[in-house]
Design goal:
- By secondary structure, this protein is of the alpha+beta class.
- The protein is built from nine helices and ten strands.
- A hairpin with a 3-residue loop joins strand 7 and strand 8.
- The longest helix is centred in the N-terminal third of the chain and has 23 residues.
- The structure holds aspartic acid.
- The site of aspartic acid has 18 residues, from strand 8 and helix 7.
Length: 305
């Protein structure tokens, strides 16, 4: 049996004419992370190890909204969250409210493997990280100047926004700021799905959440069946406006349409993105046990947040 992999660096109101100097580094980072995943699959690593590995790479890249580069809460702090799921065993782990953990995705995996629980958050998750001896660092490490500017914009506009949200300018009710004019605002949540050569499926997603989110807000990323899901049929990682993705039970609905309606992965994912969530709020990557890959999104044209 063959293997397949897909990854994402977020969905949102991404300008199609993003300047090359801003687009190319992000594309290069995605390609690099994809190559890391492909090499691991070719070396017969299992899907769970591969998605964790790829998401760690993405978390370490400051141009994405996860790990270093996470967007800021309304208080100017970071609260990172992540989730991982093994489609073979249906085991999963999730974390929220992390402020010092370098790789949230690996802590999520430890929750899955070393605790009787699925989901740890805030102080308890941080304490568990210390107990497990994972790499931690002062919160200031994760905060970039671009994200300070992005929070400033969101506060000025009095809105909570997806990291890719376009600024408001004078002509089109949108206003341009320095960070957006040079494309600095274009970052995104990260995720990876894979099926290995034994047919095992896994999904991993990691994020800083939404810009200007309330302190304590939890999005779709760590919620099993919303932002992240895997079973014996498919693995799904979603991105976009968490509140819409949670209401739409996006990742689980893709799997359910395959299981109960007999749809193909592509049909199921397209249906969910087109009909189950509001336009402008969602994108996902997914692979099936047979190696089908799909990456629908409904976000590019307008911002609906
Ligand atoms: N879905 C994430 C959240 O709402 C944000 C994103 O995907 O960019 O927290």
């Amino acid at each position: 049996m063959g293997w397949a992999i897909a990854l994402h660096g977020g969905a949102g109101d991404i300008p199609l004419n993003l300047p090359a100097e801003r687009r190319l580094p992000r594309e290069a980072a995605l390609k690099h992370c994809l190559n890391v995943g492909v090499a691991a699959l070719k070396a017969n690593k299992n899907a769970l190890d591969v998605v964790e590995l790829v998401v760690r790479e993405l978390e370490n890249h400051p141009n994405f909204n996860a790990g270093k580069g996470s967007v800021l809460t309304t208080a100017g702090t970071i609260e990172m969250e992540a989730c991982i799921m093994d489609g073979n065993t249906m085991k999963c782990g999730a974390v929220s409210g992390l402020t010092t953990v370098v790789n949230a995705i690996s802590l999520a995996r430890l929750v899955m493997e070393k605790t009787p629980h699925i989901y740890l958050a805030f102080d308890g998750a941080e304490a568990f990280a210390r107990e497990q001896g994972v790499e931690t660092i002062d919160s200031s490490h994760f905060i970039t100047s671009e994200n300070i500017e992005r929070l400033h914009q969101a506060k000025e506009a009095n809105r909570v926004q997806i990291d890719y949200t376009q600024p408001i300018t004078a002509n089109s009710n949108k206003e341009t700021t320095a960070a957006d004019a040079n494309g600095d605002s274009q970052i995104g949540t990260v995720g990876c799905v894979a099926v290995d050569s034994c047919g095992n499926l896994a999904s991993a997603t990691s994020t800083g959440g939404l810009v200007n989110k309330m302190v304590g807000r939890i999005g779709d990323t760590p919620i099993i069946g919303a932002g992240t899901y895997a079973n014996h049929l498919c693995a799904v990682s979603a991105t976009g406006k968490g509140e819409s993705i949670i209401r739409g039970t996006v990742a689980r609905d893709v799997a359910a349409l395959m299981e109960f309606r007999g749809l193909s992965l592509k049909e199921a994912a397209s249906y969910v993105v087109d009909d189950r969530v509001p336009k402008g709020t969602c994108g996902l990557v997914a692979v099936s046990a047979t190696g089908e890959v799909t990456m629908p999104f409904n976000t590019t044209d307008e911002t609906y947040i």
